[in-house]
Amino acid sequence: MENKKEMRTWLDDLNLNHPLVIAGPCSAETEEQVLKIAHELKDTDVSYFRAGIWKPRTRPGMFEGVGALGLKWLQKVKAETGMKICTEVANAAHVKLALEHDVDLLWIGARSTVSPFIMQEIADALEGTDKPVLIKNPVNPDLALWLGGIERIYKAGVKNIGAIHRGFSTYEKTKYRNNPEWQLAIEFQNKYPDIPLINDPSHITGKRDMIFDVSQTALDLNFDGLMIETHYDPENAWSDAAQQVTPSSLIQIMKDLKIRKETDPEAEYNKSLDNLRAQIDVIDNQIIDLLGKRMKAADGIGALKKSKNVAVLQSKRWNEILGKMVIEGESQGLSEEFILKMFKAIHQESINHQEKIING
């Protein structure tokens, strides 16, 4: 993807003095619902009003969107509020209808991005459009697949491109609906700093009370904006009720978010420092999460040892671990002294966990 700098033009042309905000309901349900939410957001920092018209659902029989009828409602939003409008497209027919109804921005969802065949169909339908097109990360944590989808859209002559980070599916239960895997987003930024990157805290969290924290992390990591699902009555929304916030809550979130502004000669230094510190915070949380998982495995070992009346401390096994970790640590530039101290502390905590199990 040569000349990637032109991908940022559409965002720069908005002349915003704040991060881009895309907001609106997960699904367009009724004309009244769409217009009510839009009017509550029209005089805020929201630049694009979003609403799902076609909703991909895993199981048949679930609400799959109102279809093309909803595009008329979005046109009314633009006419009555002056806000730009956007929706998700998942095939060539969706693209054709969205463009015919002058939708200002289109995004491609995570279930579509995962398929090169679908991405090529959409790319062909979008060929040469000057509308901004945002590509969500695929459901699985595969950076190459995400970048491949973006390249297909770019090769179709679409220059106004952006990416949406909405988290990744995982078989493990975590506090997130979709694990953010921040390191993948950071790697994306490092590879393509000139492609605008938008965070979708609604799909990452799946819970409205976590929206603010994830949004702040994204802004600390220099994301260009946020896509937040908003509904005037989220508890009774027809889809994704738990992750939508009210317009008044969104307005408060936008007020409370700390934006790193360049206000002095040290701005670039401070911006870089804040970004690196945010990366460290992300990694620290991952370390704690991994240590928690390690101790759960230790609990399982403790239960097995108890059933066989085996001693907690197994010196041979411990020395094998220590030797391997010293070698691994050296390959990562970590001193032997540090590795020994760290793993002795981890080992002691593991022993404590096993002794609790064995002693009942």
Automatic annotation (TrEMBL):
GO terms under biological process: chorismate metabolic process
A molecular-function term among this protein's GO annotations: chorismate mutase activity
Keyword Transferase part of the UniProt annotation: yes
Enzyme Commission designation: 5.4.99.5
Coiled-coil spans in chain: 266-293
Assigned keywords, A-Z: Coiled coil, Transferase
Xref: Pfam families: CM_2 (PF01817), DAHP_synth_1 (PF00793)
Domain Chorismate mutase: 267-358
Keyword Coiled coil annotated: yes
Name assigned to this protein: chorismate mutase
Organism in which the protein naturally occurs: Pseudalgibacter alginicilyticus
Taxonomic classification: Bacteria, Pseudomonadati, Bacteroidota, Flavobacteriia, Flavobacteriales
